[in-house]
Amino acid sequence: MKTNQVIEVALKAGETLLTGGAEIYRVEDTVIRICESYNVDAECFVLPTGIFITVIDNEGNPVSFVRRIRKRTVNLEKVEKINSFSRSLQNNPVSYQEAMTGLNSIIGLEGYSYALKLLVAGITPFAYAMLFRGTLAEACASFVIGIVIYFIKEEITRTGIFEFFENFISGMAAGILSVLAIKLFPFMDLYRIIIASIIIMLPGLAITSAIKDALYGDIVSSMFRLTEAVFIAAAVGVGVAIALSVGLRWI
Fold this sequence. Notes:
Elements: H1 3-19, H2 24-37, E1 42-47, E2 50-56, E3 62-68, H3 76-91, H4 96-107, H5 114-131, H6 136-159, H7 163-184, H8 190-197, H9 204-215, H10 219-247
Antiparallel strand pairs: 1-2, 2-3
């Protein structure tokens, strides 16, 4: 395999990992692992918004490659499969066509159905409402609100609006729907419903990845992810606060 083809495979694998929510050290390790599988001497530096690779060409000159990352989601299935893919190349380096076919099959994974995602988005708040010692009615209200929030968030995501706005709107929707639930059923606890409902929006993966990056010495990436987590939590909190400040006046 030619050097530029090796780099293309490595960049594509790294991009899939990074957009799937993988830690920085994992992306760097995978990119280097793929390059070493084809005896390509490479250095890799990864940030949450980009991948930078420098290799030595056949004439001994350094050549740099950059891949900009603009959108990050959570898809741990793809992360696991890319991990397995990179390790399999160490034992059995395949041709460029085979490698790209394998990568494209992983990238093309559809994952779980939309209906199942909606169901889980409701079950999670339901479980947390019960965990917080809520009543069955409060858990059911959280279930419905969780589904609606996930639907709204997905629809906003498809429009391409920046992430913090979608979290702000989702937080506001959680507050408004919780207030409506209390208006219809005054015996329920407003704050227990809200807390259970917004659980699905909290940046747990970003915080976990930030801590792991810090432990591996990637301080810049760790601070980036922590800042991102703070902004997401703030966007959700501000949305809920605005909804409550208006809604509580007419309960």
